[in-house]
Design a protein that fits this description.
The chain is α+β, with helices and mostly antiparallel strands. The protein has one domain (1-87). It has helices spanning 32-38, 69-86, and strands at 46-53, 56-64. It has a two-stranded antiparallel sheet with strand order 1-2. A hairpin with a 2-residue loop joins strand 1 (46-53) and strand 2 (56-64). The radius of gyration is 15 Å and the shape is globular.
Length: 87
């Protein structure tokens, strides 16, 4: 899926907002400014979407579940169609 992308190539829709660490319990902390920009508040539920390249997870995305039906359908629909078409 991503093999053809140059390692330095980042899609124009994406940017690095923060670098986070995983603690001993496997938790990460999203910085306050990132939470504010994304409108993430206590109690929100996030989907974790993973992408694989050569059977290894190479990318994780977080999507707010609430109010995201259309976004998820538009974003994941074509991706899922291509995944199932390849198999």
């Amino acid at each position: 899926m991503f093999s053809s992308m140059n390692n330095n190539e980042i899609p124009s829709c994406c940017k690095i907002d923060a670098v986070v660490s995983v603690d001993a319990r496997g938790q990460i902390l999203l910085p306050k400014d990132v939470r504010q920009k994304a409108g993430i508040v206590q109690g929100d539920k996030l989907m974790v979407i993973s992408c694989e390249d050569e059977n290894k997870v190479c990318c994780l995305s977080l999507i707010k579940i609430e109010g995201s039906n259309e976004l998820v359908k538009n974003m994941l629909g074509p991706m899922l169609k291509s995944v199932f078409k390849e198999e």
